[in-house]
Amino acid sequence: MQHMNAALELARRGLGRTWPNPAVGCVVVRDGRVVGRGWTQPGGRPHAETEALDRAGTLADGATLYTTLEPCSHHGKTPPCAEAVIAAGIKRVVAAMEDSDLRVKGAGFAKLRNAGIAVEIGPGSHEAAEINAGFFLRVATGRPLVTLKLATTLDGKIAMPSGESRWITGEASRRRAHLLRATHDAAMVGVGTAVADDPELTCRLPGMADRHPVRIVVDHNLRLPLVSKLVVDAVKLRTWIVTRSGGDAARHQGFRAAGVELIELPGADDGIDLGVALQALGQRGVTRVLVEGGAGLAAGLLRRGLVDHVAWFHAPAAIGAGGIDAVGRLGLEKLAEIPRFDRLTVEPVGEDVLETLRRPA
User: Fold this and answer.
1) How far apart are CA 21 and CA 44, in angstroms?
2) By the number of CB atoms within 10 A of the CB, which of 114, 222, 266, 317 ranks highest?
3) Would you say 38 and 55 are in contact if contact means Cβ atoms under 8 Å apart?
4) Would you call 128 helix, strand, or coil by DSSP?
């Protein structure tokens, strides 16, 4: 597993940067020595196998290639990786898992075997599936994976009754939240949070200035101020607003002139259908969305069963009754109806605790 573990670590480098393609890592090994490494590049190409083979050069002849996903077999914007593997003289391929994309799904392995290459499938499959859970979910359902990020007190509050909220969690938690942004394709907030907090939704970690997610605001009536940071920066940082179609044409034009892309969807008095909104994001290639507030958006996603992961930062403090809740009203009447999650990890982050959870399979 040593070489597959290395390939998995390389794959993680691409998270948040490779969409609409999966994040793949690849290692080429000859006579026990790594002669080439690669991972999917920003925008989804070149692919990991091509990168690793280019670095290996002639040393790939007779080598073993470890990859976290089945090499592609179809002609797209780049030639098939399976053909590149064959042409390089690779004798054995170890892959973590099959690609669920119907354009590939076993065809890459078949092409390799037909060329006389030994193929082994399975080592690292669990880790590889976790890395590309968003890609596989988009292939299967059309929507991206949703991670709900919460930063709360122990009693689930995100602000004082006055709205004061900076800062409930500590600096270490805020740094980790920026890392979450860097590993997601998009960061999404509701318009209430966008108006109240005027966030930038960027990654501001040292050395990661190019890892900003697409910034998305769910804004049914298009009430986000044109002077907000999200709009002012839209000319240089990709910004989308999900809104209802048929709104004020002049206001729509004002946002477009500022560089904002409007995703216009059918709307009703009670807002945008979040399931439809996620499908629209999936159609644009998004595979991983980090939801950062507010309470109404969180409740809407939970109510519809659209939250796949939760990243809960909680501080050792309490605000009590009257504080602003992290999750709005779900409208549930029975305990059996409440959303439940499986706990994956619990770790200290500075003075806070980060729990990661996953929706049960």
Assistant:
1) 5
2) 222
3) yes
4) helix
